[in-house]
Amino acid sequence: MIGRLRGTVLHKQAPDLLLDVAGVGYELLASMTTFIDLPEVNNEVILFTHLIVREDAHTLFAFSSEKERALFRLLLKVNGVGPKMALAIVSGMTANEFAERVHSGDVVGLTKLPGVGKKTAERLIIEMRDRLPEPSEGSETGDLLTTSSPQKLENEAVDALLALGYKPAKASKMVASSLKNNDSLSVEEIIRDALKASLS
């Protein structure tokens, strides 16, 4: 998995970006928020990335912050939300703005995002409400996904099991079972317990 790149911007035309990293040109799809933060062509930049592998393509998505990438990854877990829609959502609002709309059940606000209809907005609210901590008053924009909340630890453990090849439903069930016995485990301990239980 390619998680971070540091290189020189060779070309940018939203959402496409070409980055030179030690002589290798990486083609990326970047969010609009990331495009706003990009330096001019021929300047260096550090980007956080997420690689999606499919039969017909390997697509690398780029983000200017880990918080933005974290939201993108959470969105991919929602039924019916693919990379294109997830990128549109993180391009349309910050992590805090999105969380506020989800927790307040703001269907109308979410349908203002490109490609998000009423049914998708309702699904986002139902499936994301428990995955996102509630934004607190006066919290910095974008700080939402940096907390080490129990939900974040659970998500990280599920992600690790998905990377090992487990199906989403199975991975979630394994992690939930592990946390039922002890909710103060680290991510590594959750994964170890989940794997041990599945093999016993």
Mass-distribution shape: globular
CATH architecture of the largest domain: Orthogonal Bundle
**Could you tell me how far the N terminus lies from the C terminus, measured between alpha carbons in angstroms?**
29 Å
Strand order of the largest sheet: 1-2-3-5-4
H and E string: EEEHEEHHHHHHHH
Strand content: 15-25%
Poorly predicted ranges (pLDDT <50, ≥5 residues)?
Answer: 137-148
Short description:
The protein has 200 residues and is of the alpha+beta class. Helix content is 46%, strand content 20%.
Care to describe what's here?
- A hairpin with a 2-residue loop joins strand 1 (4-13) and strand 2.
- Helix 2 crosses helix 3 (83-92), helix 4 (95-103) crosses helix 6 and helix 7 (150-163) packs across helix 9.
- Helices cover 46% and strands 20% of the residues.
- The longest helix is centred in the last third of the chain and has 14 residues, at 150-163.
- Strands 1-2-3-5-4 form a 5-stranded mixed beta barrel.
- It has helices spanning 32-37, 66-76, 83-92, 95-103, 107-110, 118-128, 150-163, 168-181, 187-199; strands spanning 4-13, 16-21, 24-30, 44-54, 57-63.
- Residues 137-148 have low confidence and may be disordered.
- It folds into 3 domains: 4-63, Nucleic acid-binding proteins (OB fold (Dihydrolipoamide Acetyltransferase, E2P), Beta Barrel); 66-146, DNA polymerase, domain 1, CATH 1.10.150; 150-199, Ubiquitin-associated (UBA) domain (Helicase, Ruva Protein, domain 3, Orthogonal Bundle), CATH 1.10.8.10.
- It is built from 9 helices and 5 strands, in the order βββαββαααααααα.
- The protein is an alpha+beta fold and 200 residues long.
